[in-house]
């Protein structure tokens, strides 16, 4: 399996000899400090004048955070990256760095619910309009783009798994001079490299696969040095959603096994998805790996997908009968998880009426973890049987 790693993966996941660790430690240290002191007035002044780059204060620059940022940039094939306290901090700081009142954003439909709520609350209050388009409909995208400031993509999306031709959409945006951002949390850089496909900025909820152990909430954005510098200048220091050194250290640990974990999630989720597709109780399965072909640029699939039951299934009973699949949001860790669509539809939080994120009331979202496909299929079968009765 190791041979299958790309050169960029090998470089970015490599152990620590390029990281100048004290004591030649193979794992980088957690530089758990708020501030860094100066040896002299001259050094302090030189740093403040910007003649020298060195850590001053952890909100601005921290060595452990920087190790994570460098690795993520290498994985995404980007010049630079910046870590954040959450995926939403990465998304909000990135979007807000490039828009002002009166601007229009074009976004694909079915984006992550809190990204949608950011657009529909804060951005609307700032008189920034967001127009939603079907990312499969390139004519509709081309029609919406002229005059827009930003094109916000998410592919695949995280409930109905809309999987777009990211390169084609990015080219359309470029032709109209529109800056592009993509949420790449589902595919990760292991299965999709949006920068190589022509996208300007890639955001992640690092709480999902990048961390990979359900023990950290974090985010990151990757892109050109100039774009990252813009985020650093316009929003990041003032919104202050910084990544903590300990969380960065957990992410560095998570990244070491990212390609191996993704290949395991891919194989077992495909196995479970094919099994569900053939099941009598199931109406449809939403998984990009079940399409005739993956969209250009998407080279593999992850562990998150959804399916829709036929009428006559007691979904709450199904959910309660699951043993291995636990009921819970988020995804990307070892454990398999289940979210019934009806629960999300019943959520009373912020503006989501009229925009159901593509969720069918009889749908169920699964995250296939690392417990093994056979055990997971047996768990689903027991629960489906009980829900039919
Ligand atoms: C979870 C998630 C986010 C938000 O990330 P947080 O780390 O929870 O702030 C953004 N996009 C997608 C697709 C997600 O699943």
Automatic annotation (TrEMBL):
<dbReference type="GO" id="GO:0005737">
    <property type="term" value="C:cytoplasm"/>
</dbReference>
<dbReference type="InterPro" id="IPR015424">
    <property type="entry name" value="PyrdxlP-dep_Trfase"/>
</dbReference>
<dbReference type="InterPro" id="IPR015422">
    <property type="entry name" value="PyrdxlP-dep_Trfase_small"/>
</dbReference>
<dbReference type="GO" id="GO:0016846">
    <property type="term" value="F:carbon-sulfur lyase activity"/>
</dbReference>
<protein>
    <submittedName>
        <fullName>Cystathionine beta-lyase/cystathionine gamma-synthase</fullName>
    </submittedName>
</protein>
<keyword id="KW-0456">Lyase</keyword>
<dbReference type="GO" id="GO:0019346">
    <property type="term" value="P:transsulfuration"/>
</dbReference>
<dbReference type="InterPro" id="IPR000277">
    <property type="entry name" value="Cys/Met-Metab_PyrdxlP-dep_enz"/>
</dbReference>
<keyword id="KW-0663">Pyridoxal phosphate</keyword>
<feature type="modified residue" description="N6-(pyridoxal phosphate)lysine">
    <location>
        <position position="208"/>
    </location>
</feature>
<dbReference type="InterPro" id="IPR015421">
    <property type="entry name" value="PyrdxlP-dep_Trfase_major"/>
</dbReference>
<dbReference type="Pfam" id="PF01053">
    <property type="entry name" value="Cys_Met_Meta_PP"/>
</dbReference>
<comment type="similarity">
    <text>Belongs to the trans-sulfuration enzymes family.</text>
</comment>
<dbReference type="GO" id="GO:0030170">
    <property type="term" value="F:pyridoxal phosphate binding"/>
</dbReference>
């Amino acid at each position: 399996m190791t041979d299958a790693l790309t050169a960029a993966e090998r470089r970015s996941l490599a152990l620590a000899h390029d990281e100048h660790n004290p004591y030649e430690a193979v794992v980088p240290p957690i530089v758990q400090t708020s501030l860094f002191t100066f040896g002299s007035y001259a050094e302090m002044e030189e740093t403040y004048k910007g003649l020298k780059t060195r850590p001053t204060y952890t909100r601005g620059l921290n060595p452990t955070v920087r190790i994570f940022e460098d690795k993520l940039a290498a994985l995404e094939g980007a010049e630079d990256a910046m870590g954040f306290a959450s995926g939403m901090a990465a998304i909000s700081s990135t979007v807000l760095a490039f828009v002002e009142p009166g601007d229009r954003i074009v976004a694909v439909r079915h984006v992550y619910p809190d990204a949608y709520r950011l657009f529909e609350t804060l951005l609307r209050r700032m008189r920034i309009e967001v127009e939603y388009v079907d990312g499969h409909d390139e004519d509709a995208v081309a029609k919406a783009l002229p005059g827009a400031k930003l094109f916000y993509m998410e592919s695949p999306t995280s409930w109905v798994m809309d999987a777009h031709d990211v390169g084609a959409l990015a080219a359309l945006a470029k032709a109209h001079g529109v800056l592009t951002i993509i949420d790449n949390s589902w595919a990760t850089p292991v299965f999709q490299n949006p920068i190589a496909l022509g996208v300007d900025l890639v955001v992640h909820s690092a709480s999902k696969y990048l961390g990979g152990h359900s023990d950290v909430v974090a985010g990151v954005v990757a892109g050109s040095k100039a774009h990252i510098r813009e985020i650093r200048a316009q929003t990041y220091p003032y919104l202050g959603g910084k990544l903590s050194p300990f969380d960065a250290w957990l992410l560095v640990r998570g990244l070491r096994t990212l390609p191996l974990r993704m290949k395991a999630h891919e194989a077992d989720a495909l196995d479970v998805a094919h099994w569900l597709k053939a099941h009598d109780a199931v109406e449809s399965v939403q998984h990009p790996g079940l399409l005739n072909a993956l969209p250009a640029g998407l080279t593999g699939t992850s562990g998150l997908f959804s399916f829709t039951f036929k009428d006559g299934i007691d979904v709450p009973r199904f959910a309660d009968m699951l043993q291995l699949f636990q009921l819970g949001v988020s995804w990307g860790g070892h454990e398999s998880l289940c979210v019934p669509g009806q629960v999300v539809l019943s959520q009373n939080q912020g503006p989501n009426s009229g925009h159901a994120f593509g969720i069918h009331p009889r749908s169920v979202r699964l995250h296939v973890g690392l417990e093994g496909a056979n055990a997971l299929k047996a768990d689903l079968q027991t629960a489906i049987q009980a829900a039919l009765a």
